Structures
1.
Amino acid sequence: MNKNGGERALTITTKNSPFSIEDTEPLLPWLSSFGQSEGGGVSRLLYTPSWLEAQLALKQKMEQSGLHTYFDSVGNLFGRLEGKQDTVTILTGSHIDSVINGGKYDGTYGIIASFLAAQLVYQKYGKPKKNIEVVSLCEEEGSRFPLTFWGSGNITGKYSITDANNIHDANSVSLRTAMNEADFNPEHYQSPVRKDLEAFIELHVEQGIILDRTRTSLGIVDSIVGQRRFTVQISGESNHAGTTPMSYRKDSLYFASKYIYFLTNKAMKLDQDLVITAGKMNVMPNTPNVIPGNAEFTLDIRHHDEAVLETFCNEARHTLDQMAKELTMCAKMSKWLDIKPVPMNTPLTALATKIAKEQQISYRKLMSGAGHDAQVFGEYCPTALLFVPSKDGISHSPKEFTNKADLENGVRILTEFLYQLAY
Amino acid sequence: MNKNGGERALTITTKNSPFSIEDTEPLLPWLSSFGQSEGGGVSRLLYTPSWLEAQLALKQKMEQSGLHTYFDSVGNLFGRLEGKQDTVTILTGSHIDSVINGGKYDGTYGIIASFLAAQLVYQKYGKPKKNIEVVSLCEEEGSRFPLTFWGSGNITGKYSITDANNIHDANSVSLRTAMNEADFNPEHYQSPVRKDLEAFIELHVEQGIILDRTRTSLGIVDSIVGQRRFTVQISGESNHAGTTPMSYRKDSLYFASKYIYFLTNKAMKLDQDLVITAGKMNVMPNTPNVIPGNAEFTLDIRHHDEAVLETFCNEARHTLDQMAKELTMCAKMSKWLDIKPVPMNTPLTALATKIAKEQQISYRKLMSGAGHDAQVFGEYCPTALLFVPSKDGISHSPKEFTNKADLENGVRILTEFLYQLAY
């Protein structure tokens, strides 16, 4: 397959130009048709045929609408609106890959919105001063390979081709082989690191419930949370459920229950932005008439402030030790993930606020509890992350939904954003 | 294989008679050698070759020591010391079957002790007034077939041969086929229900930790606990661990933790004889970064007083409903086991107490938190259940251990018991 798309006949059913804000909603099912299953879910994993088909269809649409297009070495697709000064670039976009059986909005919406905003700003104001580039990032989800942010990571220098060695998918296909099969030959890799980025703006569906619950059209992200993950192991004593008096027991599940109850309450009282989750729990021997000798569970702890995170995690460890002493059992807490919070650029979030006010679009500041490409760009160049609502907070599901008005408000905001930054 | 044992050469290494109290300890490894694995564990499942071998070896030993032996239709083995009046019978014994990879004491000790007590009382006092029978009950554990107390159940009329229909082991061998293979032909079944039983006395290892912890030689069981088992299902909402604020969550594991913590505390305060165990817990989807939407766990609740059991179980249900309302989640509690408490015979436990005092053997009253054949007999005829200590409360394990002094004290008590009842 040729990545210039010349040999492929792609069914493109929507019009080519000029585009209007009304095209936002129809373009979503169009782009989601690549990799869509009969049940309506979308599976578009990095370097698979449906992924490549989507990128090539987008490329063709960008070209037909007047953007100059190109792929970088890892398959990030760019659509460029050349600036008059051609010195720095305002980059906007999101990721084209999906989770397995995901929805039509996650990632896809940010690409469509960026594409439309570039069209609309050009229609209204002509050629910009600075370059505007729309990007369809090759990978963010980590659904095929045990690695995330392959797209933004290559643009920002977090990753390079050497990181593709020794990474394999579930069928033992290496990342290098998969790249090559999609016609991105690792041997021809040239660093896609961009030195010309003045800002990156990502528009994304919230994947959370706050905007929907509060009937707010726009979320302006202050920061992307840091997260730490732990496994807690409790060792008590397996014993007969009938013959062991309560006072003689070392019941690991009782310990785990007490701990989860107290720690969750503590988190709820401490700070409304702190979230903690015991998501995975396994009990041994897991038999109705045996006191559980061992319990193991995970803790996922997130906050946008590294100091709060650090303090709370220390307290979590201290509480565990105290409880272990009190209940005369052993407990161990091991950290296996530690991602620092990434603040978004303050002038950019201020600009987003100003635009939302001017356009009388309801907005609120929030943090992102989920990871996004914006967190990779946020450590590299001034970055803004904007959300539109997700109905019932649903994401990574064919049930993802955002209504027409919110989708279009997002494009309006982004259009003005590009004007303010690039003209 | 012929159940009269005539065709089998059994290696019997201990002497045949006269027996003394000193034989208690050596007879245990002898009987446990049938069905013993290289690792020292004992697996002697109902109607298997090792089970039959053990019963036949016992039969031979009983005969050589002067007892009249016979099997009933389901394979309970009896050794009879004929009384002068030959009207009623004092029955004593325990079960010959074991769990998979069990120890040398569970069941086996009660048979050996009964055999020796019958020898010793005869040596000392001659022929009894009433019949004394030693019984090696065919099955109690339920380790091969999904049914327990097959031995005592047939003697007391709880079961008959029709209950053997449609019961199969893990290899799809029916209970009827297994009986037949051990030469107990179900077609020749004659009811083993006994109308002549004046008392049943079972001596058993505690399988709990109370006697060992309190350094007591003898446990005199007041009653065998009733037990109820429930499955509790909690339905919340699976959601993103990062993007769902704490106040919006319906976290089923938080609910389960809170409930287990509170209910366990309530039980501990209410009554020291009440035991409750959440032994099995499964959480869905059981993923570190997803709020658990569903949690399911079991509750095993035991007490010797049906009224306490009833009140506490009602309270458990009420607390669950209250918490479900408070946390706006759904919770369901389904009962799948309900065994009533069985009190032991008061004059018999008084007699045991009197004997222990006279013999200056340390004793304490306790309840049995585990099930025993004595609970089946307890609903049929006057029954006593006596315990000797289990080191560290260990049972159903090759590590089961009871020291020589305690083993012998049990035999002494039982000998006197038989004298008091049968002479």
Note: Chain A touches chain B through 60 residues (CB under 8 Å).
2.
Amino acid sequence: MNKLAKFLRALDSYHITNGDKFDLKDHNPDDDGDLGLTKAEGAKLLKTVKKRLLELQDLLYANQTHSVLIILQGMDAAGKDGTIKHVMSGVNPQGVSVSSFKQPGPTELLHGFLWRIHLAAPQVGRIVIFNRSQYEDVLVTRVHPDLLQHEHLSGEINSPEFWQGRYSDIRHLEHYLARQGTIVLKFFLNISREEQRERLLARLDIPDKRWKFSPADLREREYWDDYQKAYQNAISETARPYAPWIVVPSNHKWYARLVVIGAIIRALQNLQQQAPKPAPEVAKFLDDYRTRLLSEHP
Amino acid sequence: MNKLAKFLRALDSYHITNGDKFDLKDHNPDDDGDLGLTKAEGAKLLKTVKKRLLELQDLLYANQTHSVLIILQGMDAAGKDGTIKHVMSGVNPQGVSVSSFKQPGPTELLHGFLWRIHLAAPQVGRIVIFNRSQYEDVLVTRVHPDLLQHEHLSGEINSPEFWQGRYSDIRHLEHYLARQGTIVLKFFLNISREEQRERLLARLDIPDKRWKFSPADLREREYWDDYQKAYQNAISETARPYAPWIVVPSNHKWYARLVVIGAIIRALQNLQQQAPKPAPEVAKFLDDYRTRLLSEHP
């Protein structure tokens, strides 16, 4: 089996379209696809495939029929910012934007939890990246239900029905987006607890990276097992063919980036887009105009 | 049976929470509830009940747990603008706003059909009125499917699955809003074809009302039967306990207004809201502060 076939098969195994049998424990964060690639070779390969992503983005932008929503979730230091920087730096900024969903502010809290999500949903022809997303509302609030008291909610909160309602609302939102022509891809950057420890230590050792820390991040590490459980639930409840989760082995950054870009490229290729052809009367006009430009005095 | 009991029973019969057996033909636009009220008596009664609406709105605003979304739909001259003016003029403008959904503009068309709807959804504590709504996307575009070509849509359009998808997206949106504590009330102002004729004629006779006309309105009258069918479908597909349709007999304006305000009042009363009580420590502070104010030199 050649490397590409092997990689595509690995991609399939990370792709969750039905959560019923999903078990996060089956996913090894250390997996590197067994491609026999070194970190340097992986980085070189990424550079090559980024060119393909740019071509596909051009077609997406030109056709104005579809859009792409990329959701990035993961524990602190899992590589969300790095993925955006290294994977998406090749695309045309005119067609892409990033929305970071931090703790909701006062105006956001006056609306339903999906309000700010809808506002940021992609226009046709565009790629939008969510750095954290609607899933925070079934992850951080699930681990810390006392945060719900800041939301203006009626009815019983933090009951099993409450969480089922949120999962259902999220599924419906994504189904709607998919029906409108949005490709929804949800990436969980899966690192091990030990890998997080090493990355946090490395960050603490580099003075220029200390700004990325807040004491809150370090406290969240104490809730590691609760977060794993919350991810397990969120993924199994919301993985659907129209909005798959891709569980990305992320202990090796170079491999995680290849998996993310691979999944995006594959989804865009499935659209089988071509450069749009102008209507015959427009083509005729363009030909005539070309003739006119050619006959102008230089 | 006294008049109030009779009126409440009539209200029940207009309230559609399950569309399976809904037939628009069972609803008589000429119905005036058989209350034996004259137009003048109806107008006087409206004035009285508006006071109750204001009280309930104050509680809604103070409690910050729920919100109200009022959707007004109906044929041209059915009384949408008049209902807003006469029913909602009693409430505090700080807690209410009206969004009119006309033909979508270029930016709106770049997003999914529910994008502008979500943006306008009510904050907690508020009443929002939609003058036309998401339902235009299964009414006017259903009657004139060629309008869909202006939307950037992928996949097969105007197929039965396409419309089922839209109904489903609308139901899900409303279910989400309801779960967030929004009371969703959808009013169809039901007039007869003959009543529309008379109202249009009356408008044409009054020079000051001629501005309300566009030739397009008059053309839409030609599609009366198609619109009735589209309303029949929309109501039967989207009437749910969490987002009922109220089919308002609207040939008599005074009666239509009583029905609309009656349904809103009843929904708000069901919340059984009381003025929020301050926490004991806040109450203590307020008492102390009062003492301080009293002891100030005048």
Note: The interface with chain A takes residues 64-66, 110-115, 118-119, 121, 123-125, 152-155, 165, 168-169, 172-173, 175-177, 179-182 of chain B (CB under 8 Å).
